[in-house]
DNA sequence: TCACCGATATGGACAGTGTCTAGATTCTGG
DNA sequence: CCAGAATCTAGACACTGTCCATATCGGTGA
């Protein structure tokens, strides 16, 4: 077992915090984070049922940490998509970035779900680690959205950014909940960003 | 206390099922459905901790029932908005229907959340009561979306309907999670449905 | 009318959980 | 080298979901 500590004693684990997080993430592959048991996590890590308390305070503390790591992964996926679509058209890039968002949710539904659980993360008072991640998501979406706007429409950036966030987030939730398939997502995003779709009537 | 039974005996409640649902809905005004306790619900209704089992089978059974009632309320709100915007423009109507969706979520966050909890409702095998409600939501959204399409673009109806569902659902979730305010929703929907917003580049 | 049966409600029991307190062990800085 | 901080363990408590056996009620057929 990997140890940060130099001692071979079994009493102190040496790297328990991350080990517990890993165990939790592993358990969340097969069960929802709502039914995740602190004691089972401790059992997985081979440690007493109370050891987690010295690292996370309480159950929500562990979930907060897990949601931070998940949010970081989500941001990475979006940044990667943004970079890989650097030379594509703004609309193509928006579809790719949105696809990355939904793709992460589809691949790790429970990690995605814990990130947006109001009982875990309250955006009004986010964790020091979580706050910049939220800012970065908003930034990526704003950049992606800005490229879609016609010149002179900069005033619409903020509301449209919110709309884009809502769209990809909603599609992700619908996929996770099982109401739509991941195959439905790209056509939906394309249709949404097609200016012809909703152009029937004048304002 | 309201009794369906004619007897005044306290042994049989007479109308326990709905009474338990009401108690659960009431508790969910102040606590999440994930931390909702079957025993507390029973206590609220003034019955033994085991009485709920004869009506719902298990905890998830009660949550399923609660989510059915909540989904019915959500559908009603959308139908009402659709009717009240009968004479408005398609875009105005879409904003109103979407606003009703988000409004319900903002007003009853926990009822909204339980409806889309994958551990409660699995769309693949929905409850007999839930199935038509899901169909009706999709129908309302399809009607609202169809009116937005230019003539000859009927092929885009399905993907755009999915996109609209995703958009309003995502905005609702973001409001519930606290990432945006309800005041952000209408501008976002307007921006999203404005054909000028995303018209910068040709396909 | 009345005995019976299914539906409804009760109580006790059990394993599992989150969290508190107290105590044991190891690490570390002066 | 040693005292205090950090880490981990053990025991206890209240609470939970669920199973089982039991009690009560309402209606139905003889």
Describe the structure.
2 copies of one chain form a homodimer. By secondary structure, chain A is mostly helical. Chain A has 2 domains: 11-57, Arc Repressor Mutant, subunit A (Orthogonal Bundle); 62-193, Tetracycline Repressor, domain 2, CATH 1.10.357.10. In chain A, 60% of the residues lie in helices and 0% in strands. Chain A contains 9 helices and no strands. Chain A has helices at residues 16-27, 38-44, 53-56, 59-84, 90-107, 109-115, 130-146, 157-177, 185-193. In chain A, helix 1 crosses helix 2 (38-44), helix 1 packs across helix 4 and helix 5 packs parallel to helix 8. The first copy, chain A, is elongated and about 65 Å long. Chain A binds a DNA duplex (30 and 30 nucleotides) through helix 2 and helix 3.
Outline of the structure:
The structure is a homodimer of 203-residue chains. Chain A has 203 residues and is mainly α.
How does the helix and strand content of chain A classify structurally?
mainly alpha
The CATH superfamily of the largest domain in chain A appears as Tetracycline Repressor, domain 2
The third-level CATH topology of the largest domain in chain A is Tetracycline Repressor, domain 2
Regarding CATH, which class of the largest domain in chain A? Mainly Alpha
Query: How many discrete structural domains of chain A?
Result: 2
What is the H/E string of chain A? HHHHHHHHH
- Count up the helices of chain A: 9
Oligomer: homodimer
Annotation, overall tally of beta strands of chain A: 0
Radius of gyration of chain A: 20 Å
Helical content class of chain A: 55-70%
Average pLDDT score of chain A = 92
Give me the CATH architecture of the largest domain in chain A, please.
Answer: Orthogonal Bundle
């Amino acid at each position: 077992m990997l140890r940060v500590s130099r001692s071979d004693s079994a009493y102190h684990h040496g790297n328990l915090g991350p080990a517990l997080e890993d165990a939790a993430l592993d358990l969340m592959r097969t069960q929802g984070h709502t039914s995740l048991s602190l004691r089972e996590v401790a059992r997985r890590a081979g440690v007493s049922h109370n050891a987690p308390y010295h690292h996370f305070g309480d159950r929500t503390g562990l979930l907060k940490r897990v949601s931070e790591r998940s949010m970081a992964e989500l941001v990475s996926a979006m940044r990667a998509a943004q970079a890989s679509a650097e030379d594509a058209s703004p609309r193509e890039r928006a579809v790719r970035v949105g696809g990355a968002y939904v793709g992460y949710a589809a691949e790790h539904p429970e990690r995605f779900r814990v990130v947006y659980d109001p009982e875990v993360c309250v955006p009004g008072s986010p964790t020091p680690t979580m706050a910049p991640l939220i800012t970065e998501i908003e930034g990526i979406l704003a950049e992606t959205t800005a490229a879609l706007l016609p010149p002179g429409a900069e005033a619409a950036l903020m509301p449209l950014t919110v709309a884009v966030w809502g769209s990809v987030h909603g599609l992700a939730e619908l996929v996770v909940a099982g109401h739509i398939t991941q195959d439905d997502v790209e056509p939906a995003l394309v249709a949404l960003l097609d200016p012809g779709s909703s152009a029937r009537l004048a304002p």
